[in-house]
Give the backbone structure.
Amino acid sequence: MKIDGRRIANTILNDLETKVKKLNVIPHLAIILVGNDPASKAYVRQKILTAEKIGIKTSLFQYPNSIPTKDLLKHLNDLNYLSDIHGIIVQQPFSSHIDQKKIVNTIDPQKDVDGFHPQSKFESPIAAAVLEILKFVPLKNKKVVVIGKGETGGKPIIQILKKKGIIPIVIDSKTENKETLTKDADIIISAVGKSDIIKSNMIKKGVILISIGLHKGSDGKLHGDYDEEKIKTIASFYTPTPGGVGPVNVAMLLKNLVYAAS
């Protein structure tokens, strides 16, 4: 059965819209986008449209892949000191020449609504979204596998699960006997962003599949880490792409922003 991420997100957004109307300020989100990655552009577009629907202001600052780290840091510092901006996000990933750690650590922790700064007061939206989607599942009694441990996907999910007392099995490119681990899993959370990371012969009947990863297919559309047609009769629940984790991730990001503006 498909997990309706849009329905989950709308419940959160309706509550946020009510809160925004009661604020004395208009929450303002600054978005920095570097390059032309299709998945990144799709996420940014979704964030802007969703924010506008509930009365949140957004400002998009778009730069070419060639921008030096020092120039990006200057723009971030300028945004840090603007009192009418309550949240700042830098859409990832971006070019390898940009120092990701410096970028993340430069954002004011009080405005880091993506939760990447070590001293950020905000929970990672993607990790919070996964927990929100899995609210109906007693996680402590389940075998949870996380595929991928990247900074923007797998890592924050692994961290939040551990905070909840759940120690997931983590699969990366060096893991041996991957299929043995996935076939034994009750829940698989995949954060890779490549086609067919999870194949039908890698999972057991009744598994719950959550796809965080995104990639652009040969059809020009965005896809998750598994072929939905091939797993839908095996999985008990699964997130589709689009309409799965993405809308909930955006809702959780905006929840952080409204809190920052309060």
